[in-house]
Each structure stands twice: as structure tokens, then as C-alpha cells.
Design goal:
With 138 residues, this protein is mainly alpha-helical. It has five helices and no strands.
Length: 138
């Protein structure tokens, strides 16, 4: 059980930040999908070189890394404050963000649509996990 209201406020504030970062990540992903075409090659080194030269993809990767770090940080804080709701939400969102992050790495290397699907699946699960946590703690 959470120890005080200031702890609850801090966890909700971070969860809202993560929620909005996920929304921003979604729009960056859509923009990347609409406006960037990867070269027709199967060489991962060339695909990564191309990805690093595209500002939308670089921003997408930076926010993805921030989400990865942030979701694990929320998990650590939820455990520290002994908040069961946020522990559940953070575990689910952490696994989902790892899934999305891994899907992104594999997508760039292979250009297989299945990995894009993994990114989308991880995104929606993480978003729903944060929404559930925010709803439960309102």
C-alpha cells in the first residue's frame, strides 16, 4: 500500500508523462511510416546507416530509449513506494516497451513488417497499462 499522498502524486505525474510520451512516439512512428522509405537492401549496416540519417527515425529512437528508461524507473519507484497498482502497471508497460523497442531494432535491421507489428502491439499494451494505472489511482 502506498505510504503517502505525495508518493501517489509523484507516480501519477510520471505515469502521465509516460502516457504522453507514448502518444508522441505514436505520431513519430506514423510520420516515419508515411514520409520515409528505406532503401531496397537486405544489408543491416546500410539500413542502420540510413536510419541514423533520418531525423524522424532518430527522434523515434531517442523517445523509445526514454520510454524504456522511464518505464523501468517507474517500476523501481512503484516498488519503493509499495504501490501495488503502479507495480502491476509498470511491470506490464515495461514488458510492452521492451517488446516495442526490440521490434524497432529488428525492424530496422530486417525491414520485416512483423517487427513493425511488434512495435505497434507493445505500444498499445503499454498505453493501456498506463491508462489502467491512471484510472485505478484517480
Amino acid at each position: 500500500m502506498i505510504k503517502d499522498k505525495s508518493s501517489a502524486f509523484l507516480l501519477r505525474k510520471q505515469a502521465w508523462s509516460m502516457f504522453w510520451l507514448l502518444i508522441g512516439q505514436f505520431f513519430l512512428g506514423i510520420a516515419t511510416n508515411l514520409f520515409i522509405s528505406f532503401p531496397q537492401t537486405t544489408k543491416p549496416s546500410l539500413l542502420w546507416q540510413f536510419a541514423r540519417s533520418q531525423i524522424l527515425i532518430v527522434l523515434h529512437m531517442i523517445i523509445g530509449l526514454g520510454l524504456l528508461i522511464g518505464t523501468f524507473y517507474l517500476l523501481v519507484r512503484a516498488r519503493h513506494f509499495q504501490d501495488n497498482t503502479w507495480q502491476i502497471s509498470a511491470v506490464i508497460s515495461s514488458l510492452a516497451v521492451v517488446l516495442a523497442f526490440s521490434g524497432g531494432i529488428l525492424y530496422i535491421s530486417s525491414q520485416l513488417e512483423f517487427y513493425s507489428f511488434l512495435m505497434a502491439t507493445g505500444f498499445i499494451i503499454a498505453l493501456l497499462a498506463y491508462a489502467w494505472g491512471l484510472y485505478q489511482t484517480k
